[in-house]
Specification:
- 44% of the residues are buried.
- The protein has 1020 residues and is of the alpha/beta class.
- The chain has 40 helices and 22 strands.
- A 6-stranded parallel sheet has the order 3-2-4-5-1-6, with helices on both faces. A 6-stranded parallel sheet has the order 11-8-12-13-7-16, with helices on both faces.
- The termini are far apart.
- Helices cover 47% and strands 11% of the residues.
């Protein structure tokens, strides 16, 4: 049996190529071309080709056949492209299998752990498919497998499952076992009727068929299986590797075994599933191979490039040994291990983003050495995306080799957004998310589409949610105030185009529909929505880099959906999302919008893709528990004891496989950095157990891993040498450009925050209402003011009409005020009961007010304009008084309605809240329309909330002389203010008075208050 090993500290593929060329150095050139090399991944096959070219130097080569047999591992088994496959029935399509199993799984009642929604059923069916594959891949009965009978195979393993001592299992697992029998039997029958094989079973049969073919007719040319077994091997793969090792010119080349300690450690390694060598140890046992007779691979001595200190592999292997083999841990010998620390360092980052920045810097630094290659190896796709993005700031494009989930690609996201938009009845947020996507146009010119969409957003979608559906949007657009006919026509044209594109997919409600029909309508709507005058939607939809993969996936999905039972249309978006999971497209996220290609010397790799590769610098990222390694999970269909009794690998075996990836990746480059983050997603993390073991072992030796400086580089990257805080803004436009008009409500703004006044009046900036705004947070003052104005007008100047008549007048006034806001059912439903409570309060107050004070007339919403004559010019003071009452004696009362907290009396006297005093001054001057000049004897606020206490009357001043003095003082203060800011050239300083709080704070982000306020506090 020809078994070889390439040590972990040497570049595997370079050694492999050198050994093959050395073995065939005296053979004719075509001998190499006739050789077959089996490798674990396609990426390693491509890398071996480059290794051959390096070893050949300038000589021409006919390269061997290099086949990626990922199907030899338990985790990632691809179909084998071997001749023996031609005699086997075809395998069922993966999507069709999942759809059929979904139909079976959805019958399990939720009370017994069954799914409650179709997407849960789809995901549970995926777990069931993985269980069926695992059972087939781990099957040892060759006669049972050779029969290639799905029914017989299902009955055999189900019988073993039912023999698992039922009384020792929880009731839940007994129910699950019963359900599994029904589903597995139905599935086997479905396959038999269609003369198909399950995917896992066919892979096993393919391996066995190839093994039998080579056993019956051994190849005359070399066959080498290299680097296989790191991720674990299934029984059929063990048989194939045994035959390869026994071939006259066959060889099985292992990776990273510590031959010097095999005899003493090996028995314990095989029984420790989390050990990095556990998979290879079990492979050798299953092959009946003597581990002590493994020979070194020829040609390794000639390899000098990318050699790692041999002591590093020894150090890590000892640190990861099982508890039964820890003699070295108890024997301090720091000098023996010091060499193993050369080129090995650890990176501790505060969080995931800081880790990504630091890793990007490490990769960039490696490129300073000509010809050097650097890589990030991590199972964390979020970290991979972050690093890819960070590398672009250094001018490096490096895409994640693991790809991008199909559902997050631009086209996949568009399809998902379209479904969500329809399912949520065209609510503002999902509607804009779909219609602002770069693919959306609905047959219109893209620029015209976006322009009309912005109008729809501002006029209809901002604020409380409009009525549901396309009809509701149309009604809201037609009822929206303050828009001319041309604007309305553009919005309606957009809605017409949208309605036409979504024909057949405009609603996701009602009775259950066939899933295939929903998919067909969904895709037809998406294609119509993606169309432009220049290109049909189908071409635009699938023209991107992921288009071919997506089109193929959707074509297979259309066939699969025919096997699903009818589903609730409302569940379609979630089900469609689930059907896109697990499919990865080539990631080009970082290259979008750029012409450059990916950098040839920087790679971002997953664990499987990194196997057997070598670099000059490698960073092992996200070394945190539950990330690398992942948490172990036995799955939903069998408990841990059941798996053990059934004969399936323990869940901890996966930790051993990723531990092997950790061990070999740490030895894949002379410069290796072990990286982790203290927090991920805002939650604290725990270091990977391997980091803890290495640190503990080194601590016992009086040593420690060197700290990488990259974390400090990352912290300093965006930190300036000298911090120069931004100054408090003080714009000072010329006096000629400043406004010559101010309203009484703006006076307090100018006092408290001149910069906010400047942004509002001079820059003409207005805050946009929120999308789908919470009606509880909407400023409903205009509703209350409108209702009160109509109510007072309805009462007239006559005698009190009585409570019943007043109540009827209020109800009509409130209804009209709500109607003025347009067709917004959410707004009306929220405020109608509050308005009713306000109405009861107002009626009570108004009845008492008219009875006690003898109101002769009431003016509501009356406009006034007062000219302030100042030495430098004139300023127009505008006001719109909510209400001015004239008493029988001719005196006036000025009332203001507040839906929030009204000012305190002290604020009126010190000038912080000058609105009512200024309105009193204007009333005494007779500038209000319909109100004759007269003394003011009352200034009052009505606080109206409609809550548990619907309203409160808060008198501010009730003495005519005091009001006159207050009004005169307010005018004097206003004169000084306008002289300074409107007629002068004083800067509009942001928040000059700390004790004066402006209304709202809509312009705080423009003034960057968080920056300069903190800096000024620190300075003090």
């Amino acid at each position: 049996m020809r078994l070889f090993d390439i040590p972990a500290h040497l570049p595997f593929l370079d050694c492999l190529a050198a050994g093959i060329l050395q073995d065939l150095r005296d053979a004719p050139p075509e001998a190499l071309a006739r050789a077959t090399i089996l490798l674990p991944t396609r990426r390693s096959a491509r890398a071996l080709r480059d290794a051959f070219l390096r070893e050949a130097r300038e000589n021409a080569l006919l390269l061997p056949r290099m086949r990626a047999l990922a199907g030899l591992s338990t985790e990632d088994a691809d179909e084998l492209a071997l001749p023996a496959l031609l005699d086997l029935p075809p395998a069922v399509e993966p999507l069709t299998r999942q759809a059929v199993l979904t139909g079976f799984v959805i019958r399990l009642p939720p009370r017994h752990g069954g799914p409650t929604t179709p997407e849960q059923a789809w995901q549970l069916a995926g777990e069931l498919a993985r269980l069926f594959d695992e059972v087939a891949l781990e099957e040892k009965d060759s006669d049972l497998l050779q029969a290639a009978d799905p029914l017989r195979f299902a009955e055999a393993w189900l019988a073993r499952l039912e023999a698992l001592v039922p009384q020792e299992q929880a009731v839940h697992w007994q129910i699950t076992t019963t359900f599994l029998r029904g589903v597995a039997s139905q599935w086997a029958g479905w396959l038999t009727e269609r003369n198909l094989l399950d995917i896992g079973l066919r892979r096993v049969l393919a391996l066995r068929a190839q093994a039998e073919a080579w056993r019956a007719d051994p190849p005359a040319d070399p066959v080498i299986a290299a680097g296989i077994g790191i991720g674990g091997t299934i029984p059929a793969a063990v048989d194939l590797l045994r035959i390869v090792a026994d071939l006259p010119q066959g060889a099985v080349v292992l990776h990273g075994l510590d031959r010097a300690a095999l005899g003493r450690v090996w028995p314990h390694v095989e029984s420790a599933p989390t050990h990095p060598f556990a998979s290879q140890a079990r492979l050798l046992t299953a092959m009946d191979a003597d581990a002590a007779r493994i020979r070194p691979w020829p040609g390794c001595a000639a390899i000098a490039a990318r050699r790692v200190p041999e002591a590093r592999a020894r150090l890590i292997e000892v640190a990861l040994r099982p508890p039964e083999a820890l003699e070295e841990w108890t024997q301090p010998a720091p000098e023996a291990w010091r060499d193993g620390l050369q080129g090995l360092s650890v990176l501790h980052a505060p969080d995931g983003q800081a880790e990504a920045v630091a890793i990007a810097l490490l990769l960039r630094e490696a490129l300073e050495t000509p010809g050097s290659r650097a890589a990030l190896v991590t199972p964390d796709r979020d970290l991979a995306r972050r690093v890819s993005a960070e590398l672009t700031r250094h001018g490096i494009l490096a895409d994640d080799s693991a790809g991008e989930p199909l559902g997050t690609t631009p086209t996949g996201a568009f399809l998902r957004l379209v479904a969500r938009m329809v399912a949520e009845d065209f609510a503002p947020v999902p509607l804009l998310a779909a219609l602002k996507h770069p693919l959306a146009a609905a047959g219109m010119d893209r620029a015209e589409w976006l322009s009309a969409l912005r109008l729809l957003e501002r006029r209809v979608l901002r604020g409380p949610r409009p009525p549901a559906g396309l009809a509701g949007l149309r009604a809201a657009a037609e009822a929206s105030p303050a828009q001319d006919a041309a604007v309305q026509a553009r919005i309606v044209a957009l809605l017409d185009a949208l309605s036409s594109a979504l024909d057949g997919f405009a609603r996701l409600s009602g009775a259950a529909r066939p899933a295939a029909d929903l998919l067909q309508a969904h895709l037809a709507a998406a294609e119509a929505l993606a169309a432009t005058p220049e290109q049909p939607g189908g071409i635009r939809l699938y023209a991107a880099e992921e288009g071919e993969l997506l089109a193929t996936h959707l074509a297979d999905l259309a066939v699969a959906m025919a096997e699903l039972p009818a589903v609730d249309p409302r569940a379609w978006p979630a089900l469609f999302d689930a059907t896109l999971e697990g499919v990865a497209a080539r990631s080009r996220r970082s290259a979008r919008g750029r012409d450059a290609a990916a950098h040839p010397r920087v790679e971002i790799l997953g664990l499987l893709e990194a196997r057997l590769l070598a670099f000059d610098r490698v960073v092992l990222g996200a070394l945190d528990e539950t990330v690398w390694p992942l948490a172990t999970d036995p799955g939903p269909w069998m408990s841990r004891p059941m798996r053990k009794q059934f004969g399936l690998p323990e869940p901890e075996a996966r930790i051993g496989r990723v531990c092997a990836d950790f061990f070999l990746s740490a030895c894949a480059a002379p410069d290796a950095v072990l990286s982790r983050a203290a927090r991920r997603g805002g939650a604290p993390t725990v270091p990977a157990r391997w980091l803890t073991r290495i640190g503990t072992f080194l601590s016992g030796q009086g040593l420690r891993l060197a700290e990488s400086e990259a974390a400090h580089w990352a912290a300093a990257l965006d930190r300036p040498d000298v911090v120069r805080p931004v100054e408090r803004p003080r714009p000072a436009p010329p006096a000629a450009l400043r406004p010559r008009e101010i309203s009484v409500t703006e006076v307090s703004d100018l006092l408290a925050d001149p910069y906010a006044f400047y942004a509002k009046r001079m820059l003409r900036l207005r805050r946009l209402d929120d999308l789908d705004a919470d009606v509880g947070a909407i400023d409903y003052g205009q509703i209350v003011h409108g209702a009160l104005a109509r109510f007072i007008r309805g009462l007239g100047a006559g005698a009190w009409p009585g409570d019943d008549a007043a109540r009827a007048i209020w109800q009509q006034a409130a209804a009209e005020a709500l109607e003025d806001q347009g067709p917004r059912p959410g707004l009306a439903a929220f405020w109608r009961p509050r308005l009713a409570r306000i109405g009861a309060f107002v009626i009570e107050q108004e009845a008492a007010r008219r009875a006690d004070s003898g109101i002769a007339a009431s003016a509501v919403e009356c406009e006034g304009l007062h000219v302030l004559k100042r030495p430098r010019g004139e300023i127009m003071l505008r006001a719109r008084a909510d209400r001015i009452d004239r008493f029988a004696n001719g005196q006036l009362a000025v009332l203001d309605y507040k839906t929030g907290e009204p000012p305190k009396p002290a604020s009126l006297r010190n000038g912080d809240a000058p609105q009512l005093p200024l309105e009193a001054a204007m009333a005494e001057a007779g500038v209000f329309s319909g109100v004759k000049a007269a003394p003011v004897r009352e200034l009052t606020y009505w606080k109206l909330t409609g809550g548990q206490e619907p309203g409160t009357v808060k008198p501010m001043e009730t003495e005519a002389q005091e009001i006159a003095d207050l009004a005169e003082d307010s005018l004097r203060r206003l004169g000084d203010l306008v002289d300074k800011f409107l007629l002068g050239e004083a800067p509009f300083t942001a928040r000059p008075h700390p004790l004066r709080a402006p209304r709202g704070g809509d312009y705080d982000h423009l003034s960057r208050i968080a920056e300069w306020a903190a800096a000024e506090d620190d300075g003090e």
